[in-house]
Design brief:
The chain is an all-alpha fold and 203 residues long. 63% of the residues lie in helices and 0% in strands. The protein has six helices and no strands. Helix 4 packs antiparallel against helix 6 (163-193). 26% of the residues are buried.
Length: 203
Amino acid sequence: MNRVILLLSVMCVGVSSQPITENQRLFSIAVGRVQYLHLVAKKLFSEFENSQLEDQHPLNKIFLQDFCHSDYFLSPIDKHETQRSSVLKLLSISYRLIESWEFSSRFLVAGFAERAQVTSKLSELKTGLMKLIEANQDGAGGFSESSVIQLTPYGNYYQSVGVDESFRRNYELFACFKKDMHKVETYLTVAKCRLSPEANCTL
């Protein structure tokens, strides 16, 4: 029995002994970070919804347009276009989405420690994405941090407003943060899958 276990162990080591490239390592870290951010976004949005339902706010009438700041960015319109997009395109879009939340995340209605953690993870992910973009350019060029268009989300979001307007904007902020983290998680998961030729990257 011990010999069988030993043989299986050797076989497993042989299967998993293929070296992991730096590119794959960076992708794994990036996917892990955006999965964390997506989970936090869903948690914050759910908590905000529940707290406002107790106050009987008409949530279904607030966000009918489903419009987010990130809708200004050119990105795949569906899963089929996502699968056809190049790795560099998916990385570039993900970078722009994460960069757009680096400042806005400080205004999420959450505990100080949690908000600080989100901002920190966004900054770390942004740095990792830039490394991945540089590693996957293959001489294509055309992207740099200075090429990112700096837009302040929601235009006048940061102006002083009344209670009702503030509530609507907070709801939009949470909804868009969740929506954008879902996008980035999808894009990075597909891009990472492309590193394994035998993998099925179907969404």
